[in-house]
Amino acid sequence: MALELDRPDLARSDNFIDGIWQPSGAGAHYDVCDPATGEAIATVADSTAADAQAATVAAHRAFDSWRQQPAAARAKLLKRWHALILEHTEDLARLISREQGKPLAEARGEVAYGASYVDWFAAEAVRSYGDIIPAPVGSKRMLVTKEPVGVVAAITPWNFPLAMIARKIAPALAAGCTVVAKPAEDTPLTALALVALAEEAGLPAGVLNIVTSSREKVADVVGAWLEDARVRKITFTGSTAVGKLLARDSAPTLKRLSLELGGNAPFIVFEDADLDAAVEGLMAAKFRNGGQTCVSPNRVYVQESVYEAFADKLVARVQSLRVGPGDRDDSQIGPMINARAVDKIERHVQDALARGAMLLTGGQRLNGGVTTGPNYYAPTVLGDASHDMALAQDETFGPVVPLFRFRDEEEVVDAANDTPYGLAAYFFSRDVARIWRLAERLQTGLVGINEGALAAESAPFGGIKESGYGREGSRYGLDDYMATKYLCQGNLA
Ligand code: SIN
After folding, report:
1. Per-residue CA distances from 409 to 299, 305, 415 (Å)
2. 298 CA to middle of ligand 1, Å?
3. What is the pLDDT of residues 299-354, one digit of tens each?
4. CATH architecture of the region 265-456
5. Closest residue CA from atom 6 of ligand 1
6. Ligand 1 centroid vs 78 CA: distance in angstroms?
7. CB 293 near ligand 1, within 6 Å
8. What secondary structure does DSSP assign to 40-91, as a single string?
9. Ligand 1 within 6 A of CB of 159
C-alpha cells in the first residue's frame, strides 16, 4: 500500500543539503519497509561519505551567519516550524506509524511530544544568559558568555522517528549551531518530512541538512563526520555499544558528545504500594511503543508478600492488550521494528524459560488474524525471573515483563543498581521516608516515584554510568550545545 498523505510532497526520498533536495551523489537508493508486512513503502537516498561531507561543508558555511542572528530571530523560525509540525500532525503520524509500526493514536502523541521540544527550545533560545563575576581586582571586568559549539551531527534512533530528532535539532538550532542529521536506517521518512517543514518555516540554506543511508552505508556517513574537525559535536541516541564507538572515534578531534544510550530499568513494587496504581504505572511505562523505549522497565521487582496479588492483576491487564497493525483504531501494540528485534525478544524469553522462569501469559510470536506479518510478538509476563537470565542483563526492547521476587529494601536496591546501565528507575511505595531514601540511592538519571510516565520537554532526560551523558530537554538541554566563554577586561586607564 502506498503512503497516503494529505500533503504528498512531505514524502521525500532525497537528501537535503545546503537548501536543495538532491539524490545521493552515487545515485543509490534503498527500500524503507513497513514493519507490519515487511513490504517496501518507499525508497530513499543511500548516501556516501561524499554526501556527508557536502552536508558538513554547507553547515559549516552557514554557521557564522546563523549564530549571529539575534536569538529572537532563531526563536521565531522555531515557532513557525512548531506550528507547521502541529498543523501536519496527521500526515506525520501516518509516516511514523507506517515506517515504525506504532499505532496511529500513539504516533499522534509522538508528534505532539516531539513538537513540544521545538516549542520549548524556541522559548529557551532567548534565555541563554551569561554571568558577571565580581573581580578580585577593582579595575577588571569579568564576564561569562555562552556560544554555540558549531556544526552538530545528530544521529537518531528508529523508536521515536520524530521526537528524538526534534529534541536534538531544536536545542542545537536554538543555541545557534548548524546541523547535519542522519535518521535511523529503518525510519528516515518522518525525519525527511520534518526537515521539509523546517524548510517551509524559512530556515536558511545550510542551517539544517539531512542525509539518509542504509545499514551498510551508515559507517561511511558517520565516519565522514567523525573524522571531520569542522563537526564539533555528536549527539546520538542508540545502543551503548555504538555510543562507545562514537566516543572512541570522536577522540582524535575531541568533539563534544551527548550520548543517550541503553538502559536496564528496574521497576520496584513495595508491599506498601497502591497495587492498582503500580500496575497502571507499569503498563504505561512498559507497553509504550510496544516496550521499544530505552526507559522501558526491564526488570520488575515485587516484594514477596504482594507478589501473587500483583502478578494476578498485571496478567489480567496484559491479556486485555490488543495487538495489531498501526492503522487499526483498536491496536494498542504494533509490530516490532524488524526481524532482528523479534529474534532478540524470542531469545530472551526462551533463555528465561530454560532457566526456570514461569510463563504467565504470552511467550510467542503472533501471526494470524489481524497480526499477519513476521514481526508481532505477544505481550508477555514471566514469573520467577532471576539474575542469571539474559533478560536481566540486557534490555529486551519488547513487550516482555519479567517478575522478580524480593524480600527487603536492601536486597532490592542492590539488585536494581547491579547493572552497568543507569538511565531510568521506577518504584511504587507510600512510605515517605522510603521514597526519599530510594530516590537518592537509585543510580539512574531519571527516577519515577509512583509514576510510570517520565519524559517531558521541561525535564532533563539522560542517564549516568553506561547509559551515557548529556541531557535533553529542560533548561539544562541548551547547555549541551553551548560553550562557556570567559571574557576578562583589564584596566582601561
Ligand atoms: C528513548 O527511548 O530513547 C526515549 C524515550 C522517551 O523520550 O521517553
Report:
1. 16, 13, 10
2. 14
3. 999 999 999 999 999 999 999 999 999 999 999 999 999 999 999 999 999 999 99
4. 3-Layer(aba) Sandwich (3.40)
5. 455
6. 22
7. yes
8. EEEEEE---HHHHHHHHHHHHHHHHHHHHS-HHHHHHHHHHHHHHHHHTHHH
9. yes
Exposed, middle or buried by CB within 10 Å (0-12, 13-18, 19+), for 8? Answer: exposed
Query: Domain 8-261+468-486 maps to which CATH number in 3.20.20.60, 3.30.1360.120, 3.40.605.10, 1.10.10.10?
Result: 3.40.605.10
Q: Using CA of residue 137, residue 141, residue 145, residue 151, what is the dihedral sign?
A: negative
Which residue minimizes the CA distance to atom 5 of ligand 1? 293
Spatial neighbors of 145 by CB under 8 A, at least 6 apart, are: 130, 484, 485, 487
Cα 38 to chain centroid, rounded: 23
Q: What is the pLDDT of residues 275-299, one digit of tens each?
A: 999 999 999 999 999 999 999 999 9
| Domain spans in the chain, listed from the N-terminal domain onward | 8-261+468-486, 265-456
Pocket-testing residue among 187, 239, 295, 451, ligand 1, by greatest number of atoms within 8 A of Cβ = 295
Question: Could you identify the atom of ligand 1 that is nearest to the CA of residue 237?
Answer: 3
Beta carbon of 237 within 6 Å of any ligand 1 atom = yes
Centroid of ligand 1 to alpha carbon of 288 (angstroms): 10
Q: How far is the CA of 164 from the centre of ligand 1 (A)?
A: 7
Is the beta carbon of 294 within 6 A of some atom in ligand 1?
Answer: yes
d(Cα 52, Cα 181) in Å, to the nearest integer?
Answer: 9
Q: Is the CB of 455 under 6 A from ligand 1?
A: yes
Residue 340: partners with Cβ closer than 8 Å, 6 or more residues away: none
Residue bearing cell 523560525: 77
By CB atoms closer than 10 A (0-12, 13-18, 19+), residue 9 is exposed
Query: Which stretches in the chain have pLDDT values below 70?
Result: 1, 492-493
Q: Is the CB of 303 under 6 A from ligand 1?
A: no
pTM: 0.97
Instruction: Give the position, in ligand 1's atom list, of the atom nearest the Cα of 167.
Output: 7
